[in-house]
């Protein structure tokens, strides 16, 4: 019986079992490489399920806050304002993944508009770029470093 039956813990248990009990029993190099790729995918899914909803909510909140504070400073902020309005009209209904990803898509449009409409020489451009850096850091955390699994 598992005392922590989270999705991440279930994935960890499956990965451990495959690594310790199945992988050593495989003689075929191609099958070994295939299983190593499966193990890598399971590991990335484990990271994702641990953090995905929090990361999406945090990213959307940060983009929304920055866009709301900076839109008035921009000479032409029509698409940014429209994207922000669409985001504000779709409040977070729940923490169910479908609801969060719906808002995440709207928040992504806000981030895209910020990147397009805040000029490089604007004093708050570094804040906009930080939002993108945070998103990319989350993607790297989920995907891990690129490696040809099972290849020497």
Give a short summary of the structure.
The chain is mostly helical.
Descriptors:
152 residues; mainly alpha
Question: How would you describe what is shown here?
Answer:
This protein is an all-alpha fold and 152 residues long. It has one domain (7-143). It has five helices and no strands. The protein has helices at residues 7-22, 29-70, 78-88, 97-117, 125-143. Helix 1 runs antiparallel to helix 2 and helix 2 (29-70) packs across helix 4. The longest helix is centred in the first third of the chain and has 42 residues, at 29-70. It is elongated. The two termini are 38 Å apart. 16% of the residues are buried.
> Quaternary state, please?
single chain
Distance between the termini: 38 Å
Q: Quick one: biggest sheet?
A: none
Integer count of domains: 1
Element layout with pairings:
Elements: H1 7-22, H2 29-70, H3 78-88, H4 97-117, H5 125-143
